[in-house]
């Protein structure tokens, strides 16, 4: 099994579904690691997730919006991300409704009941299974292997009828399934057994085995339990991945999974110069693309933290108001918590503030929103001479420009259209003409996500912040965010190569689940 998986007889590549006992068990990381391990073997591999629920999204080169986790997994596979890799993206707007993004384009807002159905008839989700399977099959016709990521747990028995991301897609495409469990949380054996036992016989027939994630200690102490698990379920454990600090990628939601933590964790590298910079990020409701600050955290001497109280931004050299799926709601939240007044004081004192996307919009003077919040006319913070009107058509773009004398790349995902009525341009074309954003004093705003990943611009921006803050901070001249990200993806590939049964994984990808796997009672109806 030292060669790469070959396509099946009808030109169809192999496949594998990585499921999890729970959300955040490590499915995204394991999927990325398998992709990187395979591509290093010369396998042409692609990631896939039929349905993703996330406020962290990305724009592909064809202008499609997909989950950032799938974009990062594509990078792990060294392929360009496309809408085929994440055909359905749900972007929560409240506890009960989400924007549905289909093949990279928003198609409307739906309640959870409207999406899943109420038992009296099919919901929107059930009707999308055909689209999801078609996208998967198109990828399998192009790639040697497709590594699919599930969502939550495959044993969500209340949602099984309409499932299009776990066992629903596994059954439709006859994919073998490996279930990942986070042993650091405890209860991993019960979770493996219970997950399997709650599936129907047809679903259980595809569950090939398990993968233990985040193990600390001596693996030999775990082995008796793994043997007992095999005796109880008839299924192998395909590896025990050790706990490693800083191995998160751009997952779905949750502050601790971003590269902010992954590159430097909670330990900040010593500053290149004499001083450090403290960055406070306002943890606004429905925060989106908080990964924008990861590149700042990758800089030696930059300390990034998320805050929700005005006293927490007092000693910050830079305050960032990040993107949000609820601009008007975030504005009200800032006011309720006293953060709005603290931002106004900062601006009056000439202390740096940066707003990104929704954060940029609420720093303006006026918001007209009949689309996202349907709140109508709302007064903004008035820190930038900008008026925003929400359009029904979403802007999805991958712009390139210049700022502070440096090239900048980014991506745009927003309904709000900004009319700038003063100040200086933030991002321009090569001729100095405004492309996006605004600067007034030490208050900056832009719709561009990802701009701080441009190394030259990030260093120039941090120099401006340090000067305004009176800090003797000097950005390191050689920090490459792209290199750090590649190193991290290689570490994920190393984890799979060194701690998983790769020969057995290759057999699953090529040949599917083993035949004759036993049924574990009681099973689902």
TrEMBL record:
<dbReference type="GO" id="GO:0015420">
    <property type="term" value="F:ABC-type vitamin B12 transporter activity"/>
</dbReference>
<keyword id="KW-0315">Glutamine amidotransferase</keyword>
<dbReference type="Pfam" id="PF01656">
    <property type="entry name" value="CbiA"/>
</dbReference>
<dbReference type="InterPro" id="IPR027417">
    <property type="entry name" value="P-loop_NTPase"/>
</dbReference>
<dbReference type="GO" id="GO:0003824">
    <property type="term" value="F:catalytic activity"/>
</dbReference>
<dbReference type="InterPro" id="IPR002586">
    <property type="entry name" value="CobQ/CobB/MinD/ParA_Nub-bd_dom"/>
</dbReference>
<feature type="active site">
    <location>
        <position position="449"/>
    </location>
</feature>
<protein>
    <recommendedName>
        <fullName>Cobyric acid synthase</fullName>
    </recommendedName>
</protein>
<comment type="function">
    <text>Catalyzes amidations at positions B, D, E, and G on adenosylcobyrinic A,C-diamide. NH(2) groups are provided by glutamine, and one molecule of ATP is hydrogenolyzed for each amidation.</text>
</comment>
<dbReference type="InterPro" id="IPR004459">
    <property type="entry name" value="CobQ_synth"/>
</dbReference>
<dbReference type="Pfam" id="PF07685">
    <property type="entry name" value="GATase_3"/>
</dbReference>
<keyword id="KW-0169">Cobalamin biosynthesis</keyword>
<dbReference type="InterPro" id="IPR033949">
    <property type="entry name" value="CobQ_GATase1"/>
</dbReference>
<comment type="similarity">
    <text>Belongs to the CobB/CobQ family. CobQ subfamily.</text>
</comment>
<feature type="domain" description="CobQ/CobB/MinD/ParA nucleotide binding">
    <location>
        <begin position="17"/>
        <end position="254"/>
    </location>
</feature>
<dbReference type="GO" id="GO:0009236">
    <property type="term" value="P:cobalamin biosynthetic process"/>
</dbReference>
<comment type="pathway">
    <text>Cofactor biosynthesis; adenosylcobalamin biosynthesis.</text>
</comment>
<feature type="domain" description="CobB/CobQ-like glutamine amidotransferase">
    <location>
        <begin position="278"/>
        <end position="455"/>
    </location>
</feature>
<dbReference type="InterPro" id="IPR029062">
    <property type="entry name" value="Class_I_gatase-like"/>
</dbReference>
<feature type="active site" description="Nucleophile">
    <location>
        <position position="357"/>
    </location>
</feature>
<dbReference type="InterPro" id="IPR047045">
    <property type="entry name" value="CobQ_N"/>
</dbReference>
<dbReference type="InterPro" id="IPR011698">
    <property type="entry name" value="GATase_3"/>
</dbReference>
């Amino acid at each position: 099994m030292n060669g790469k998986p070959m396509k099946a007889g009808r030109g169809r590549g192999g496949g594998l579904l990585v499921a999890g006992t729970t959300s955040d068990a490590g499915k995204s990381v394991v999927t990325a690691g398998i992709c990187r391990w395979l591509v290093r073997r010369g396998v042409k591999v692609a990631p896939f997730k039929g349905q993703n629920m996330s406020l962290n999204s990305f724009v592909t080169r064809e202008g499609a919006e997909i989950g950032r986790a799938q974009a990062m997994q594509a990078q792990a596979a060294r392929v360009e991300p496309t809408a085929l890799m994440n055909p359905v993206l749900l972007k929560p707007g409240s506890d009960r409704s989400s924007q549905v993004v289909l093949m990279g384009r928003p198609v409307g807002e739906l309640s959870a009941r409207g999406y899943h159905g109420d038992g009296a008839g099919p919901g929107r989700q059930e009707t999308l299974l055909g689209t999801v399977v078609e996208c998967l099959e198109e990828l399998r016709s192009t790639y040697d292997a497709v590594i699919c990521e599930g969502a939550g747990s495959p044993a969500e028995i209340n949602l099984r009828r309409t499932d299009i991301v776990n066992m629903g897609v596994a059954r439709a495409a006859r994919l073998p399934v490996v279930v990942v469990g986070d042993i650091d949380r405890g209860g991993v054996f019960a979770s493996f057994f219970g997950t399997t036992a709650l599936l129907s016989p047809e679903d259980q027939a595809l569950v090939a085995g398990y993968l233990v994630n985040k193990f600390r200690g001596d693996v030999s102490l775990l082995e008796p339990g793994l043997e007992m698990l095999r005796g109880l379920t008839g299924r192998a454990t395909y590896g025990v991945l050790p706990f490693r600090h800083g191995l998160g990628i751009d997952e779905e939601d949750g502050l601790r999974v971003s590269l902010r933590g992954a590159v430097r964790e909670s330990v900040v590298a010593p500053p290149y110069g004499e001083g450090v910079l403290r960055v406070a990020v306002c943890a606004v409701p429905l925060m989106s693309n908080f990964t924008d600050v990861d590149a700042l955290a990758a800089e030696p001497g930059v300390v990034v933290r998320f805050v929700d109280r005005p006293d927490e931004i007092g000693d910050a050299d830079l305050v960032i108001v990040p993107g949000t799926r609820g601009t008007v709601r975030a504005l009200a939240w800032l006011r309720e918590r006293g953060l709005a007044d603290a931002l106004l004081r900062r601006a009056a004192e000439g202390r740096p503030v940066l707003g990104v996307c929704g954060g940029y919009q609420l720093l303006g003077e006026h918001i007209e929103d009949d689309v996202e919040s349907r709140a109508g006319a709302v007064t903004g913070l008035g820190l930038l001479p900008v008026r925003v009107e929400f359009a029904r058509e979403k802007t999805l773009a991958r712009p390139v420009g210049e700022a502070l004398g440096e090239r900048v790349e980014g991506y745009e995902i927003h309904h709000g259209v900004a009319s700038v009525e003063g100040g200086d341009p933030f991002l321009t074309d090569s001729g100095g003409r405004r492309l996006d954003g605004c600067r007034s004093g030490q208050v900056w705003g832009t719709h561009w996500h990802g701009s701080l990943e441009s190394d030259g611009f990030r260093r120039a921006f941090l120099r401006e912040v340090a000067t305004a803050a009176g800090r003797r901070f000097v950005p390191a001249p050689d920090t490459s965010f792209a290199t750090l990200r590649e190193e991290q993806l290689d570490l994920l590939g190393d984890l799979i190569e060194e701690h998983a049964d790769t020969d057995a994984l290759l057999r699953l990808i090529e040949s599917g689940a083993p035949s004759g796997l036993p049924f574990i009672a009681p099973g689902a109806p």
